[in-house]
Amino acid sequence: MLRRLFGICFLIAIFGVFSATSAKADDVFTYEFGSDSFTWDLAASPSIVPPNSDVPGSYFEIVDVPFSENNGPQTQGTFDFYEAPDHGGGFQLISNSSLILNLFGPQLYTGGEGSPTFKLGTFDLNNDGVGPMGTLTIKNTPEPSSLLLLGAGLLALLGFTRKKIIAVA
Question: pLDDT, tens digit, for every residue of 124-160?
Fold first, then answer.
């Protein structure tokens, strides 16, 4: 009976480890310059507006993205992530038909504009090559249900070990 319980706990823990590492995750974007910061979440491989047919290979667009400015929620915005031949990569944020941010720097995604995947890390961005404007940090956050599964498996193993120690004593 104890072997069966141990085997089940071990399988739950192993399944939790593998599902946590392969789960669909969101990327958390934080752009900071001076005392200002903008934060938003996007899927690691986002659903995008069909690529721009006028200038193929130039950018892709994600619409209706909630974001916050200085920890205050804002209306939804449109993000354009682009590859600019003269500047590398970058993005712009448009909200309520107003250009909020227009920044250039290294390429922020891999793959084509039809199926992009964001790079993780910290990137220095500038305003059209004029000088450093701030840093964009892209972090990955695992899906909460995968973390719960991993935690449940580890707690089950801990409980089994505790019972075994108490039985021996």
Answer: 998 766 666 899 999 987 666 555 666 666 666 666 6
What whole-number distance in Å separates Cα of residue 92 and Cα of residue 47?
17
3-state SS, residue 3: helix
Asked if 94 and 100 count as a contact pair (C-beta separation under 8 A), the reply is: yes
* Residues sharing a CB contact under 8 Å with residue 39, sequence separation 6 or more, in sequence order: 28, 29, 30, 31, 67, 68, 71
pTM given for the model: 0.66
Output the CA torsion 61→129→27→21 (10° steps).
120
Residue 66 CB contacts under 8 Å (≥ 6 apart), including other chains = 40, 41, 73, 74, 76, 77
Radius of gyration of the chain (CA): 22
**26-33 and 36-43 beta bridge pairing:** antiparallel
Residue boundaries of the structural domains of the chain: 1-23+143-169, 25-141
Residues 6+ apart with CB under 8 A from 11: none
